Amino acid sequence: MAVSTSPPADLSAALVLEPVAAADWLVILPVAWCLAIGALLVMLRRPIGLHPFIAIAGLAGLVVIDALLLHHVIVSGPVTMVMGRWLPPFGIAFTVDLTGALFALAASVVALAGGVYSLCDINDSGRRYGFYPFLMLLMAGVSGAFLTGDIFNLYVWFEVLLISSFGLIVLGSEREQIDGAVKYGFLNLVATTLFLVATGYLYASFGTLNMADIARKAEGLRGTAPLMTLTALFLLAFGMKAAAFPVNFWLPASYHTPRVVVSALFAGLLTKVGIYALIRVTVMLLPMEREELSFVIAVVGALTMLVGVFGALAQSDFRRMLGYLVISGIGSILAGIAVGGPGGIGGAIFYALHSMLVMTALYFASGVAAKLGGSFSLSSLSGLYRRHAGFAAISLMLAFAVSGLPPFSGFWPKVMLVKAALDIGAWWLAAALLVTGFLTTIATGRFFLLAYWRDTAGGQGAADEAQIPVAILLPLGVLTLLTLAIGLYPEPLLATIQSAAAGLSEPSSYLNSVFPGAAR
Amino acid sequence: MEAWFALLVGTFFTVAIYLLLSKFIIRVLLGVAILGNGVNLLIFTGGRLTRGVPPVIEEGADALAGPAANALPQALILTAIVISFSFFAFLLVLAWRAYEDLSTDNTDEMRVAEPEEEPAPPLGY
């Protein structure tokens, strides 16, 4: 036998031999947890009454796991775990740094709020259709995208969240939904295919797919490999996923068609995954190329903000207006990526986290408004203030938050972005940010004026005081309180975000975590 | 060899983009299918084409003797094929449902979600 004659192989050259520390299992746990809960829900197909409770418990568990993961990363820096114990770059690595952990935590909070809200929004037929398994699969994809350290693996998570979002967007199979889903489906599939094209070229130039390895090798390849082409392709692909200006049209065509809770989750999660991937690739992997392309990104960002907010001004449907506000927020984040530096990148991350919470809450509010007023349309909604003063207060706070007014969470990232833009002399970008904030105030203010204060029933309409179920008020109120808390006391979050941005621009600790002892 | 494959990939992309620009869903679907295959070919070519040297370790040896064909692109393509096939299947059914429900496969006429004549928001009370 050949085996007996050959010398014993030195496994330490190929495998991670020491067992993974117990705390490091947290790196993979969010994904495994979501998949396991999703599988459990699929197995329990018949007792659909149990679904929401299992899913809410699962999502609450996910929040705890992501919070522990964030704590672990804050304490001990980026953490890496490799599949099958193969040493990176050969094994597929999951590497969590502060940015990934922050995004994952925000995503899990949004998903938990959505899970609770769905108690009153998803009826039995929606449950039978598989809302909760799809939701858990979506969260597996979103968490995987935030936590992975391998670019092809990132593509796979994109597809996982895309296929589950297809399931969610057609939930109910109404004519409107089919129409929206066609546009959403085709354009998003083209976007991920472009991402795959870019990944193919990346592999052809670098010979590796591990993000840390790419970041190490980019310096040496700058002269020979077509890195600018690569970066431009990534920008187009992720810009399309994030609904940046010339490729944003799928979003307002589809986001208002599904169930309110689905719209809310999409607004909070999907575009932000695109933005996260853009930040990861342009800031950490190919920083010099981001520098070169910064003017293009800035112009795209400014146009995205303005197109978004003008679109919002032209809409009379609450949810379509919100769709345009999502786009306008993406523009602000792109402005931060274009400006770069700790202020720009930090502002972009902060704005993305703020936008996740606030846009989800605003979609929830649109659902409540439709329940109270019987319509999403601005021409028939009226008298919401009289019907529920508390809800009107929450809506006003959210309107302030999305416009970037103090004392809410939208204020600080806007300050950071405007300051960062002014520091590098891009006064026009700062002006675009401020004008966008002003126009957003007008759009949401007009909405508040017409839907909440206007009283076509003349004060003695059919119903006066209305009750809102706790399952709706709770997630809406908690997200609003979070917005207020971040606005009033931003220091801890701000400090974390600043070190996250520093870790992206100077990824030495990230590289060290993947390749221990091989620091440059 | 790679140059010819690059030309072939370019042809795939040209055809796919031409079809994707069409108004009719069925053509767009064909474009999506061709685009997916073009990308697979791109990854395959990007991994360099090496003939006649399979990456098989000789009996009794620990490692490959010399340069061999790259096996990783095939793993990537296999993943991409599975994904693009399932997406194509979903979109095919979606297009059929859209044709049944909206009785058109012309995207210009699909205006249910975004009606052509929408009332402007009210200007005052």
From TrEMBL, chain A:
Domain NADH:quinone oxidoreductase/Mrp antiporter transmembrane: 150-440
InterPro entries, per the entry: CPA3_Na-H_Antiporter_D, NADH_UbQ_OxRdtase, ND/Mrp_TM
Top-rank taxon: Bacteria
GO molecular function, one term: NADH dehydrogenase (ubiquinone) activity
Bilayer topology: Multi-pass membrane protein
GO cellular component: plasma membrane
Presence of the UniProt keyword ATP-binding in the record: no
GO BP field: ATP synthesis coupled electron transport
Main location, first listed in the record: membrane
Record's keyword terms, sorted: Cell membrane, Membrane, Transmembrane, Transmembrane helix
Transmembrane spans: 20-43, 50-70, 90-117, 129-148, 154-172, 184-204, 224-248, 260-281, 293-314, 321-342, 348-370, 391-412, 424-449, 470-489
One Pfam family cited in the UniProt record for this chain: Proton_antipo_M
Subcellular location: Cell membrane; Membrane
The keyword Membrane is assigned to this record: yes
Family (UniProt): Belongs to the CPA3 antiporters (TC 2.A.63) subunit D family.
NCBIfam families in alphabetical order: PRK12663.1 (NF009306)
Name this polypeptide is given: Na+/H+ antiporter subunit D
Taxonomic source organism: Ensifer oleiphilus
Taxonomy of the source species: Bacteria, Pseudomonadati, Pseudomonadota, Alphaproteobacteria, Hyphomicrobiales
UniProtKB/TrEMBL annotation, chain B:
Membrane association type: Multi-pass membrane protein
Main subcellular localisation: membrane
Transmembrane segments: 6-21, 28-46, 75-96
InterPro entries, alphabetized: CPA3_antiporter_subunitC (IPR050601), NUOK/Mnh_C1-like (IPR039428)
Pfam families, per database record: Oxidored_q2 (PF00420)
UniProt-listed Gene3D superfamilies: 1.10.287.3510
GO cellular component: plasma membrane
Compartment annotation: Cell membrane
Family: Belongs to the CPA3 antiporters (TC 2.A.63) subunit C family.
The protein's name in its UniProt record: Na+/H+ antiporter subunit C
